[in-house]
Fold this protein.
Amino acid sequence: MEISSIKDAFDRVAKKQKLCSSKSEETVDQVGREIEQALATLQSPHDPSTQADQKSVLTELKSKLNAIGSLQQLEGPNKELNSSLAKYQKLLEKLLNPDISKAYRNVEFDAHIINQIIASHFYRQGLFDLGDSIINEAGEPNATALRSQFLEMHQVIEAMRSRNLQPALTWVTANREKLIQIGSNLELKVHTLQYVEIVQYGTQPDALKYSRDYLRRFADLYTDDFQKLMGCLLYVRRLEKSPYAELLSPTHWEVTTEELARQFCSLMGQSYENPLNVVFTAGVEGLPTLLKLANVMAAKKQEWQEMKQLPVPVELGKEFQFHSIFVCPVSRDQGSEENPPMLLPCLHVLCKQSIMKLSKNSTRTFKCPYCPAEATVAHCRQVYF
């Protein structure tokens, strides 16, 4: 989006507005001074207040006001301001409300996948009635597989928001091995929340028993955290006045709840970020580039519709990068399945097509462009990021 163009146009309108305001104030002040001077003359005790004198004063005032030309003085700047505002409005409509249909291409979609994505979106949001409606209307019975899993996730999360940790404890215990495999300490975090609740509102024996039953096995792997929790035993029912008062912060509940939702999605094989939101946001961010390209290729509609790859890069934020990207230092082409990155014996990496050109399609050895080492295509190995 041409933010700079909008800013420049806004600055021009703001400048016109200031000039118009200044000119209007100057004209009004000038008219006011002439009227005040005429009033002072009429009210002066040294002048005879005859009807003829009053008439001459008013006549002179009228002549001065006509000379000022207040109406013309006010109309001119206001017309210029209105003209600038009209241009600015047209620019905003052009840049902020474009015809996005120009960027549309006839692309075949799998209707079943689209229906499942939409239903999953509602299930992920906890809107199960809407998700069920989509499934029923689209006739997609297979899409209900995720419903029960997302339902369980929302039940656990809602319980945590009500300070009920039992469903979360049950889930982390049941999925202990899977959480360990992905290096997650979620189970410790959930047990820590429960332990802190016992320390703050229960008794020392209860807290000690809970630490022995559920926290002891974390002692070797998370020594610092375990020692801190054991120190809390000295401040039962007065944790807020202890060196460990920060454990009472609601932030721990919020962070652990988000972590549980993230790991829940991970174990389901689903992304934590809502795919439909990601696609929509990426589309909005890339839309200005696509609209520019569509306008440039307006005369080549057939070529635009049949294009397999965009001729210009669509710059998106880092939050939309889900895999490593390799750009060949020789050809400047981005690596792909057809043109993967290849590791040379000298440990430099080039794309396959560059290696094929250097080796004359595998007919001879070639020198690495970055060092004097020689290699053959057979000695190169594909790299997986």
Observations:
- The domain at 324-385 is CATH 3.30.40.10 (Herpes Virus-1).
- The first helix runs from residue 3 to 43.
- The two ends are 33 Å apart (CA to CA).
- The beta strands are 341-343, 349-351, 366-367, 374-375, 381-382.
